[in-house]
Amino acid sequence: MRREYLMGNEAMALGALAAGVGVVCGYPGTPSSEVISTVCRRAPEGVYAEWSVNEKAALETAAGAAYCGARTLVTMKQVGLNVASDPLMSLAYIGVKGAMVVLVADDPGPISSQTEQDTRTFGMYSKLPVFDPSGVAEAYEMIQDAFDLSEKYGTPVIFRPTTRIDHGYEAVTVKEPEEYKKITPAGFVRDPANLVIFPALSRRNHALIEKRNEGLKTEFSAYGKNEITEYGRGAKVGIATHGGSLGYVRENIADGDSLRLFKVATPFPFPEKLALEFLDGLDEVLCVEELDPVIERALTFTAGKYALPVKIRGKLTGDVAPSGENSPDSVAAVMDSFLKRKTTTGGRDVPAPPALPVRPPVLCAGCPHRASFYAVKLAMKGRKALFAGDIGCYTLGNAAPLDMCDTCLCMGAGLGIAQGVKRVDPDTCCFAFVGDSTFFASGISGVINAFYNQADMTLVILDNSTTAMTGHQPHPGTGVTATGQRVTPVSAEKVLKAIGLETVVTLDPLDLKTAVGEVRRVSEKPGVKAIIFKSPCVAIEKTDRRCTVDENKCVGCRKCINELGCPALGMKDGKAHIDAAQCTGCALCAKVCPVGAIGGDEDE
């Protein structure tokens, strides 16, 4: 055993390795991405890890390995669970022969996601056990418990950290590799009676699942990480909480407060027996949780079931905000009100922090996506056009001055939206933007749908040779696997031509004149056509080139700034100014400058 200072995602990865995980699959998505990268970096020989093409493929691959008796881990963020839900719902009925932990990183806020979703609610819906860690060290230990429970009951188990657990840090006592559990899978044994899902199997197993979950209520009541803590004596009020909110509650308990604290580590199946012990003798309970009122509903049900004279308060009663991430200050406020304290922050005098400057997200200086968007914008100037966006760095194309993202729904949706808009508004020239990673993850089916149904649209693939926004993970088009193995890359151009597209053009977006002309030409063709803007992400391919401004030529017109919005561009003493620390020498601004005042040179 040794002590390490670990990020939460690193701790969960090491916990999975300690539990004997043999196969790890996932799709990158903040805040979960570092789990697989840690496995790839720290796994002993014999552990297989992959970045799958999407979450559905990841879960199905892990299911096959679990059928063989292996312990498997699947990672994703909360919106990725939407993609994986089809196989997971059926796997809940089929079960596994080894073990499977589905790590779903929720993102209250949301901080870097399309939606706020609470995977605890999905656990209830799918009838799968849910573990909810409240700290980094606990997550390391708890994920090992999740694997043991999964194998014991032959069921997938959901493990639900949130952003503050994923990206928090803590000193953790971890096992040495030689202490890791050794699992030897038996291999696949034919068992169609239990592995081929038919209505008769589902009816039988549904009954067994309900019986199992009733038993888990009792088992979880004895689980050590579900805890009741007494503060003061003769408490008549209680607070129930979980996950990252637990720390906020604890730090806002003041000297002299009399209350009972219920930490819920396994929200489903709910530990009913322990909940009864918590509720005994209390008049009121405040539930502090993210995001859904899962604990509040469970305690309300339990109190009603056993006719307990206790009032349960929280989101449903308006005492806690119904959405958004909890914070130390928001928790302090609701606790002050609940405990009828006149002071704030648990009785401590804490000065208000200064307001943070507003930093809207923007495309990086030199990002090739800026050039791609600008080329399409110039080509479509004066025409009625739809620019359907997608999830990734290129979502930032919506920001001024580019203003090139009219819609953004979910990964791959832009292709379908473009088709739908064109059917109803045929005068609109429809473009669907998608990244190279997203194209492989969820874009191909949209192209097939468009081609099969004779749509009229232009697909624009923004190929920067990586999955940039989530941490520069590889994808099928890069020719590199999660573990660094070199493989034959999948060609998006060949895929499109195999579908049947006759017009597929690959362009360098930084060659602005050519790009604009080609966009005009391709967009005027009937049917489904594709443009691949190919230029590497500036974060993975560095250059020494920098652009400079000739102050004698610059007229201060601000066109470079007003047209591009590059963060390296600004004004100084009435002239355009380029921040050499940010500039990457893409020279797009030089092509925009009407007086030729911007040029490039080599940074010695």
Account of the protein in words:
The chain has 604 residues and is an alpha/beta fold. It folds into 4 domains: 196 residues, 3-Layer(aba) Sandwich (Rossmann fold), CATH 3.40.50.970; 121 residues, Rossmann fold (3-Layer(aba) Sandwich), CATH 3.40.50.920; 167 residues, Rossmann fold; 58 residues, Alpha-Beta Plaits (2-Layer Sandwich), CATH 3.30.70. The longest helix has 23 residues. The two termini are 49 Å apart.
Top keywords for this entry?
604 residues, Rossmann fold
Q: Termini separation (Å)?
A: 49 Å
Outline type: globular
Helix content: 25-40%
CATH homologous superfamily caption of the largest domain = Thiamin diphosphate (ThDP)-binding fold, Pyr/PP domains
Please give the domain count.
Answer: 4
User: Any guess at the CATH architecture of the largest domain?
Assistant: 3-Layer(aba) Sandwich
User: What's the CATH C level of the largest domain?
Assistant: Alpha Beta
Q: In terms of per-residue confidence, which ranges show pLDDT below 50 for 5 or more consecutive residues?
A: none
How is the biggest beta sheet arranged?
A: 6 strands, parallel
CATH topology value of the largest domain: Rossmann fold
Strand content: 15-25%
Q: What structural class do helix, strand and pairing data support?
A: alpha/beta
Number of strands: 22
What radius of gyration results from the CA coordinates? 27 Å
Give the strand order of the largest sheet, numbering strands 1, 2, ... along the chain: 3-2-4-5-7-6
Mean pLDDT, rounded to whole units?
94
Oligomer: single chain
Number of helices: 20
